Amino acid sequence: MEGGGGGQLSLHWVTHWVVLRVGARQNLRYDAMCKQGCMWGVWSRLIRSTGQWRILKVVQPHTCRSSQPKRVHAQCTATYIGWRILGIICADSETSVLSLMESIFAFSGYHVKYSKAWRAKQHAVALLWGDWKESYGMVPRVLTAMAYYNPGIKWFPHTSSMMQPNNGIFKHVLQRVFWYFPQCRVSFQHCHPVILVDTTFLIGKYKGTLMMVVVVDPEQ
Question: Where exactly are the structural domains of the chain?
Fold first, then answer.
């Protein structure tokens, strides 16, 4: 429940420096109780027919709100921060993690570690444009569309079966893909025999090797 209603709850807790113990039971119940000593708590249940949450019980008041923010907050998670920085990432996806750390402190009052800010940025990117696995999964569809609008394009994917850790089901995962445009195939027949092949290793999220083929005219 980090996004939507859960995100609003986390926003209230973090901005008011309230530390809670949250319990969720099979995504059907959502209970929040104070961890700082008072009896405050909220108990809710999901109504399956409507998809809305119903408050079953509220114990008030909340009497132990700290007058000063703590150095860390249990509800100030990377998922929550990712939800809060959506606007920043949408405006500039190249925003540095150090800049995000300053922005996070500005709206929350908490200094977060570099690793948490980095994870928050990855979560925000996934919310806006999909995660890295989804991006790889879109490659066949993109190449199919390219071939439809550019007749003559040929592409050859290579996949392998990989077991999913959460459900144990084998799924085809894209390993590599090769494609060429028809103009390249035609012009290749007139190329000089000097052909250079080079590769470069990809780093970051996209692993693998990028292969480049260059034709050189030996008379020039």
Answer: 5-129, 134-215
